[in-house]
Each structure stands twice: as C-alpha cells, then as structure tokens.
Batch of 2 targets.
Target 1
Amino acid sequence: MASTLLRCDQPLPAGLTPSPGHEHHPPRPPVPASDPRLALDVAATQAAGSIASSIASSIESSIGGGGDKEADDLFSLKPIEALQLLSASVELLVRITGDVPPTPPLATPPTDTQMSDMQVEKDKIARSHSEKSLAKLRMQALREDEESDERRRRQQQQQQQQHSNGHLSNSNSTAATTAIDGVRLKHEPVQFQDPPPAAGQAPEPYIIVGSDSQPINVQHGAITRRFYSRNEPPISVNQYLLRLHQFCPMSTAVYLAASLYIHRLAVQERAIPVTRRNAHRLVLAGLRVAMKALEDLSYSHSKVAKVGGVSEVELARLEINFCFLAGFELVVGEKALREHWELLRCGGSQRRVDELEMEKLSQMLGRVTERP
C-alpha cells in the first residue's frame, strides 16, 4: 500500500489521527523587517512613541519633583522639558489675558500702504513738546551764546576806546617831531570795526532725526497688529510647539530664551497682551529670533515658514517686528536664563500673573465706583 506524505503545516485528513511519535510544528512567525513598507511604518511608530514617552517622563518628573542633582542643574535640562515650561507659561498668559482685540487701524486707510497709515495717524495726533525738548534746548543755548558774545564784544570796545584815548596825546606830540626824509608823519588812532550784530538773525533750523520723528504709540500699535490673526487658530499652543519640536528641534537655551522674551514683553513691560489670536505668532517669532541670537546654525527660512504655517514674507515681518518690540535686547546670558528657569519651576510666573489679575480687577472696581 502506497504511503501518503503530509506536510507539517497542512491539516490532517478526516479519519486520520497523529501517531504518538509525530509532533505538529506551527509555522514561523513573520519578520516585519524584511518588508520595506512595514519597516518604515515601524520606524515612524517608534519615533512617535519616543516623543510621547519623553513628554510623559518630563511631566512625571516635573510633577513628582526630583531630589537628584540633575534636577537642579540647568545644563542637564532636556529640550523637551524646556519646551513644556514654555508651553505652560504661554498657556497661563493666554488664560489670564483672555481675548483682547488688537489696536484698531485707521477707519479710512490711505491708498499707499507703505507706512502711510502711520504718517496719517502722526498728522492727526497733536504732539506737545515739553521744555526738555532737544529743539528748545538748542534754541536756548544759542540765545545764551549770543548774549555772552554781545557782552564780551562791548567790554572789548570799551577797553579799546580807553586805550586809544590814553595814547592820543602822546601820538600828537610825537607826530610833530617824527619825520622821515623831511616828511612829517601823522599817527592816526587805529579804528576797530565792529562785526555786524547777529542778534537779529534767525538761528539755523535744528533738525531732529530719531525719537521726535514719529510718535511712539503709533509705532507700537503698528508693530503689535502684525502678530494678530483674524480668526483663532484651530491648534493649541502646546500642539503647535510639539509640531515645531518634531520637525525643527531646538536647544534648551532657545526655548528658555523665547519664554524669557515673551515673559518680559507681556508681564514686565506690558508691551503686548498674549491672547489666543497672537500667541502662535509670538512663539514662532520668539523661537526664530532666539535661534539666530544664541545658536551658530539655524534652520533655513523656508523650512521654518512651512513648519510654522506662514509664508516666508510673513515670517520675515514677524522677526523684524519682534526685534523692534523687544528693543533688540536679544542676547541673554546664563544668569538670566537660570533666573527665568527657577521662576518657571517655582511657580513665580503664576504669582506674577495673579498680581496682574488682581491689579486689573482693582482697576475695574475703581472705574465702576467712579460712575455716578
């Protein structure tokens, strides 16, 4: 009788039972690394998992509070932890500020949009020059110089007249006796001609170029309007920062410096309120400027614009306006970064914001009580 050969991975026909000495072996498990498509998917999943695990570990370490020496060392701070501190501080400012509309533009904008709106607002505002104005100080100094020159000139004229009157008799006596080749010479007193007085002349115009050329409030309003968007972005600040960190990872110093810039503008100087409609552009501009100010190398302009969701022209405008808004005080040292880091860790920003909220509430109550 012919024997039938069966493979190990095939099921047994009906009516046949395996012998005691025969064992059934299952097939080998698949190897995903052999498939290129599956390998790409696994790599992407591992990258996303590593980012999520690092964020979770940083949150747990910040909540639990570490007694390690690394927890108190600024140089051992990971970039993702600095990113979380930046996100928390910006979200806190947004929550406290609420929705503040930007400075309203002109009702009838001019045809020329190249800085002409600022010129129109400048013409409408009545500027009062104080006594400490440079032009008035210059005019006063010119008047004092002219008066002192006039007094000095009069004194010189009086001295010259006295000197000429004293030697007049001696010159007349010597004129009769002094002769050259039989010709007697007559000594005449020297007459000094006074220079024409300059008191009646108008002083030259003193042109001031700089602080008096444009009102500060007009310039400040035009700068802050650049950061506002028409509608509230659909993505939160935390998700926006994670997107920037995923495609354009930056160092710890850049994240802390950007947080320091925004904290200085919003809390200390109160130059601009941080709201849902301008927080994303403020963060993008702050990170871009901090990267250029502190790092030797930076990402290309086009890449940062694509990741940030703005055009290249808009990103350039945001950088320029952020520099003017910060007063070009962009270089920060280790001491400033450490103080700001300790402020964020200890909850000092929360206390500062609470103080601002209480002051705002007291101002509102004062306005309410002043009403009749």
Target 2
Amino acid sequence: QAWWDGGTTDLSNAQPLCRAHNLEKEHRRARKDLHRTRTPPPPTDPPGPPPPRP
C-alpha cells in the first residue's frame, strides 16, 4: 500500500523505479485523484446586517 494511502514509509514498502516509470506512476495517481468525489466545504454563515449609522 502506498504511503499516501496510509502505507508505511520504510524501505520494505519502497518501489524503486526509473525516472520514466516514476513519472508515469505519479501521472496515473494524479488522474485517479481528479476522479475522486470531493466533499464541498461547509457553508459559511451569511454576514449579519450592517451596523447602524451614528
């Protein structure tokens, strides 16, 4: 399991790849992340009425 998915960061979990294959792996991960469902941020409270004029 990859470290960004909760895997360990020790040497036994390493995947040594050449530059081209490492880039391909990262591009695939980025494309996968684009298709994940994202939860929108919670709505903020609307601003209250303006303060009274002096």
